Amino acid sequence: MKYIYRFLVFIGFIMGYILEAQAQEIALQLYSLRNEMKVDPAKYHEQISEWGISALEGGGGYGMSDDAYGKLLADNNLRIIGVGADYNQLTKDLQPIIDQAKKYGAKYATCYWIPHAEGPISMEEIKIATALFNSVGQELSKEGITFLYHPHGYEFTKKEKSVPMDYMLKSSKNFAFNFDVYWVKMGGGDPLEIMKKYPGKFPMLHLKDRKKGTPGSKDGRGDVETNVVLGTGDIDIAGIIKEAKKQGTEYLTIEDESSRSVTQIPLSVAYIKKELEKN
After folding, report:
1. At what angle do helices 2-20 and 95-104 cross, to 10 degrees?
2. What is the pTM of this model?
3. What's the pLDDT tens digit per position in 105-138?
4. Are 205 and 181 in contact (CB under 8 A)?
5. What are residue 175's DSSP bridge partners?
6. How far apart are CA 274 and CA 269, in angstroms?
7. CA angle 73-111-259, nearest 5°?
């Protein structure tokens, strides 16, 4: 059975190669459907395909065997392009992360959170994490995997006359960023200006718009119900898409954590397509 799964992964890889040769691709962070997948993963994978999305960030199989999940992906023309990389695992053994990525044929592995005391992160913690990420990125690159960090907003409070996120961006030699524009905005950063200042460091974006009037957050936390349809909030999503196209960002990944995600995601897909055609 393992050969069947490998064949399905190979087909997904070929599909991905063809799509990557084209313009930016719309992807979906599966966390957007975390509640729905608990009820009926087969139904919602089919739904994703019907929305016109084929690239997924996540993985895990939802309790299915590798072969069964591989078949579900293949049947719906879906593939996993990115997996998670827990920070604590990064400090111990990279092999489980490598195995997970290779199982799906995923090109990217992302760390979504740096453990730290509640509130903004310290400069010392960001320096330790940056050194770790450079080391991890170097090792994963040998396996054909690109390591990414996903900012969460707590990196933007000024420390020691500088901003932790600026330090990380300037010091990232062997890793890049899975740039969540919502959390950057929540932390007080300007995602579009940062992209322009550090071009080439953003192969993947998390596109998530923020309800107008939402207060910022310095601790990486916020109300998920402030996630709105792309283009209707207070983040310059149109400008970000234009810059992403200019820089050659590979994946415009929708992440909608709200309870309205099933309704909002297809509207966000339509918005991205419209902006890509315009620019």
Report:
1. 80
2. 0.91
3. 999 999 999 999 999 999 999 999 999 999 999 9
4. yes
5. none
6. 9
7. 60
